[in-house]
Amino acid sequence: MYDNPNLERKVAQNETKISARNVQVFYGDSQAIKDVNIEIEARTVTAFIGPSGCGKSTFLRCLNRMNDTIDICRVEGEINLDGENIYDKRVDPVQLRAKVGMVFQKPNPFPKSIYDNIAYGPRIHGLAKNKADLDEIVEKALRRGAIWNEVKDRLHAPGTGLSGGQQQRLCIARAVATEPEVLLMDEPCSALDPIATSQVEELIDELREQYAVVIVTHSMQQAARVSQKTAFFHLGNLVEYGDTGQIFTNPKDPRTESYITGRIG
Amino acid sequence: MPLLWLILIVLVLGAAGYVAGRQRAMSSAGGDPRHLHSLPVYYGSNVALFATVPALLVLVVWLIAQPMYIDRTVAGEIPAADIPQGSTLGLVMSDVRRVAEGLDLAISQGVMTAEEEGALVAGESGIREKLAQVGVALGSDVSPITLASARHYRDMTATGNLVRDVLVLLLAVGGFGYAFSKTNRDFRARNTVEHAIKLSLILSASIAILTTVGIVLSLVFNTVEFFRLYPAAEFFLGTTWSPSFGGGSSLGVLPLLWGTLYISFIALAVAVPIGLFAAIYLSEYASPKVRAFAKPLLEVLAGIPTIVYGLFALLTVGPLLVSAFGDGGLFGVNWMSGASSVSTAGLVMGIMLIPFVSSLSDDIINAVPQAMRDGSFGLGATKSETVKQVVMPAALPGIVGAILLAASRAIGETMIVVLGAGAAARLSMNPLEAMTTVTAKIVSQLTGDADFASPEALVAFALGMSLFVMTLCLNVLALYIVRKYREQYD
Ligand SMILES: Nc1ncnc2c1ncn2[C@@H]1O[C@H](COP(=O)(O)OP(=O)(O)OP(=O)(O)O)[C@@H](O)[C@H]1O
Ligand SMILES: [Mg+2]
After folding, report:
1. Residues forming beta bridges with residue A21, ordered by sequence position
2. For residue B436, what is the domain's CATH number?
3. Domain membership flag for residue B223
4. What percent of chain A has pLDDT over 90?
């Protein structure tokens, strides 16, 4: 985002991108997230792990206010993106989501052509000056989504006609095309075969050079492979958060240890 | 034996069969239902079904077939020479039936005894007066041949009824006995009952289909009859509609078709945007509370009888339009002379179709997966961008289907046209002029003392047929589009 080399240098290795303070989330009367504090770093892959129903998706969706679309969902506390509270009244959630992109568990390409799927975000945000510009953005996004070679000859075929793994990479490319600063991924590989999974993992590793990536996963191996930081959730609490290496080799909390070794979950 | 008794006996046999079958099954299993192949109810139902269904089916077929058969036989015995001048076999037969019926009534009401009836001689003993006493009025005195035929008719009916009663009772008892004897712990009563249920479902489905076929066939035959009396080319290409029952009418369908299409077009121009926007609001924007309250309210509109809409057109919308476009009206123009006009009917019909369009579209929009919307929101699109660029394109085929269904309703609508659009068949572009539609003319051609053999009355069937073909095409097209749309998500 920053073209200025001076600014570039000032960005410390562990600059905080998102910081959450005392976040509570309620669905109606039931509390899904209890008092979570976390600092998510820029240019880092952060993995959220934890047993099913512990609130990983819920917390992830708080980070770009996707929970706003659920009527009964209520969020308390403070979540700062670059120091600015995204739940402040002045913040436009639509603008926010352009900065904090999201990839969903199930691939959800629009029933449009592959090209239009990718061009969707750039078009609504006016990122392209002209057609040639847009073509370039689309190609770049598809290349970064590691799917360009497979679709370059059929850009105008419907995106729904791709295989599941291709669709997921298309969705990642679509999210990348709007040039977000943070990319949230909710179990992006749960529908993919091992080959597509490793392609997506490679992609995540590349994305880290520019973005903060947050990934929810049920695979310990995946978390260990792709992430630098890991957060373990349990029953709506953030139990433990730290360097991935430390969490997996030397967890401090007994609950984390039993989850990682497969005793709870 | 009266019919009612017969049916009651069969039903009582069925009920007894239920109890007996159940008991026999239980006792064959030593009182423990776990040793039975099926639940005890199935054994009971099985016997009850065998006792009632074949008997009642034969009864129904017999009731339909017997009068037809007797009619044919008796009619065949009347010599052509005995049919009076200016009458037909059909008229004579209806006299025969009336006399037979009257004699039956007279005997059952005690006006005469069976012996007196046997002593009656045509022409002298005042049969006509006797029958008038029991409420059967005859146009003329009973001729010998009519009386003879009526007697024969009665004899055959009496024999037929006796045979019928015996047969039905035999079947009921036989079915009972057969099923009862087969009842034991290993008998698969559950499967038999399953079979019976399947058959009854098939029966219902075929009744619905056969009725439709029957309706279409009657339309087709009458239409063919009409085209034998009136040239098809003049019907399809004629531009004037002026029926006169004295003959020499021009029955060109074009002005009516034009009126139909014009009014439907205005109706859709009103209903489609409003209905669609309402659906989008309800499914995408409204909070659950508003939705729970507004959707049923909107659907109440669909429950209003169309005649009420017709009154609304006649008493409110028409005068309102006149006060705007009529002489001395709001706009100072004089484009409209009466309250009846294409616009009046079109606007009101449009209001009638709003809930139709909105509730169908609402269902279709709701069927678009939430994941599509999430994907769009996740990219930073606003609600309206999401609706316009993702939800609508995904729902479009279904919505087109909904619109076509609404169109076929508009084409078939009658009451609003009768009250709102006037009765003049006209080929005109002016939306403020009175016109009429195919449906309204079908009504006016068939009401009153129309002779059903004249082209002026038969034209109603040709009109109905044209309408039927039009709406059928629209519906098929709509179904085709909706089906194609379904394939995308299922
Ligand atoms: N839309 C909703 N309405 C009501 N309750 C919800 C909703 N979504 C989630 N919840 C509840 O919030 C809790 C956390 O759910 P969440 O989806 O965040 O779990 P998760 O950690 O992502 O689980 P998984 O690993 O199975 O995806 C669960 O108890 C769930 O029942
Ligand atoms: Mg989840």
Report:
1. A78
2. 1.10.3720.10
3. no
4. 60
How many Å lie between the centroid of ligand 1 and the Cα of residue B319?
A: 59
Q: Is the pLDDT of residue B328 over 80?
A: no
Backbone angles phi, psi at B265, to 5 degrees: -60, -45
Q: What is the pLDDT of residue A263?
A: 66
The secondary structure element, H or E, covering residue B309 is helix B306-312
Question: Mean per-residue pLDDT for B421-434?
Answer: 85
- Determine the distance separating the centroid of ligand 1 and the alpha carbon of A55, expressed in angstroms: 6
ipTM of the complex: 0.86
Question: What's the domain count of chain A?
Answer: 1
Structure tokens that stand for B34 in this block:
């776990």
Considering the domain boundaries, does residue A119 fall inside one? no
Domain-embedded: residue A133: no
* Yes or no, beta carbons of A95 and B382 under 8 Å apart: no
Does B157 reside within a domain? yes
Residue range of the domain that includes B35: 3-187
Question: What CATH number did the domain enclosing A41 receive?
Answer: 3.40.50.300
Q: In terms of residues, how long is chain A?
A: 265
Considering the domain architecture, whether residues B249 and B357 belong to the same structural domain is answered as yes
- Chain B touched by A125 (CB under 8 Å): yes
Q: Nearest 5°: phi and psi at B246?
A: -75, -10
Classify residue A54: in a domain, yes or no. yes
For residue B449, is pLDDT > 70? no
Average pLDDT over residues A236-260: 92
Q: How far is the CA of A53 from the centre of ligand 1 (A)?
A: 5
Choose among A71, A104, A124: nearest Cβ to B375.
Answer: A104
Quick one: pLDDT at residue A11? 41
Strands, E assignment, chain A = 16-27, 30-41, 45-49, 73-81, 84-85, 100-103, 182-186, 212-216, 229-234, 237-243
Q: Chain B within 8 Å of A258 (Cβ-Cβ)?
A: no
Secondary element (H or E) of residue B242: strand B241-242
Tell whether A16 is covered by a domain. Answer: yes
Into how many domains does chain B fold? 2
Question: Worst-scoring range by mean pLDDT, A127-131, B132-136, B321-325, B349-353?
Answer: B132-136
How far are the Cα atoms of B222, B239, B245 from residue B234, in angstroms, in the given order? Answer: 17, 9, 17
Candidates A102, A125, A172: best to mutate against B (most CBs of B within 10 A) is A102
**Same-domain check for residues B13 and B128:** yes
Please name the amino acid found at residue A161. Answer: G
Shortest CB distance from B380 goes to which of A104, A110, A125?
A125
Mark whether B250 and B173 lie in a shared domain: no
**Same structural domain for residues B172 and B41?**
yes
Which pLDDT value is given to residue A1? 41
CA angle B10, B14, B17 (to 5 degrees): 135
Tell which one of A31, A48, A56, A58 to mutate to probe ligand 1, the residue whose CB is within 8 A of the most ligand atoms: A58
Q: Do A66 and B488 touch (CB under 8 A)?
A: no
Q: Are A24 and A72 in contact (CB under 8 A)?
A: no
Cβ atoms A38, A19 nearer than 8 A: yes
Cα separation, A240 vs A230, whole angstroms: 8
Say yes or no: A86 contacts chain B, CB-CB below 8 A.
Answer: no
What's the angle, vertex CA B41, arms to CA B36 and CA B43, rounded to 5? Answer: 60
- Considering the domain architecture, whether residues B137 and B54 belong to the same structural domain is answered as yes
B253/B167 same-domain check? no
* CA angle in degrees (0–180, nearest 5) for A168-A169-A174: 95
Q: Decide if B231 is inside a domain.
A: no
- What is the domain range of residue A85? 5-108+180-260
Atom of ligand 1 nearest to the CA of A55: 18
Measured distance CA(B49)–CA(B26) in Å, rounded: 18
Residue B199 lies in a domain: no
Run of H or E including B241: strand B241-242
Mean pLDDT of B168-174: 94
Q: Of B172, B187, B202, which one is at a domain's C-terminal end?
A: B187
